[in-house]
Amino acid sequence: MPYLGIIVAPTYRLLKLVHWQFLLLYTPEEIIKKIDKGDYKITLTNDAEIMLLSGEDPDRMRSFRPNYVAIDEGRLMDKYVFDMAMNRITFRQGKVFGATTTYGFDWSYDIENMALKDSRVKVVRGISLDNPLFDPAEIEKAKDRMTKEFFSQEFYATRESFQGSVYYNFNRQQNVRSNLIDPDLPLMFGMDFNISPMTCAVMQRHGQEIWICDEIVISGSNVYEVSREIDRRYKTYFKKSQNKIENITFYPDPSGIAKQHGGLSSFEMLRAYFRETHNS
What we know:
Helix content: 25-40%
Largest sheet: 6 strands, mixed
Low-confidence stretches: none
Shape: elongated
Distance between the termini: 77 Å
Oligomer: single chain
Strand content: 15-25%
Mean pLDDT: 88
Structural class: alpha/beta
Radius of gyration: 28 Å
């Protein structure tokens, strides 16, 4: 059985546009016996093979018994890719190599911790300042553009806790205050039409910023119930002209265009409620 190395790219697109091109570029022509573009495989003059696979379909590895598997940008793949690679190299006592940008405390962090307990696992940490291809001046520019945490992650390979946050640089002390609603500014409502819970974010625009002023969350709800709650909380802020509310705008979930069993879509129910209640 010929020596086999497998390189795993995060996606088929990256495999084709990046990894395959680099493999062709950096493999000396004099040691290439055959190039199989259909399977993204190169056979060398000693009959050893190098094959590219996508992390989108890790079960394809089940067909092979590689001597090594190299996983590139592991943070963009599920841990199942690593587990499958470890399974397949056991047949030939092979090795798994992984390269990734650090990203919070994902599964690659668990692999790092394995190195503390298992002498067979080795971890090498490299930072951008050690890379001669990086211009130090450009790194300084990036430092000015990024938050401290994001810069540290990207250029010093530290692990920062971004997971679980919509805005990774959110700070409760700096970004939260009470009594946000300005009665002179229009109201915006972002609605999600899930039934349990059905939710609505209440917002106002302050210059170039969007401020989240309130939220409505009701379990086992419907459009009319959430509309009534919006009305109850905010009707004193509504400004009318010719029986129309002028200062509210809804930004609903696109799924609301679909017709319901009653024949109306969520969009139509929303319009109907405020037209009937406020003659608008």
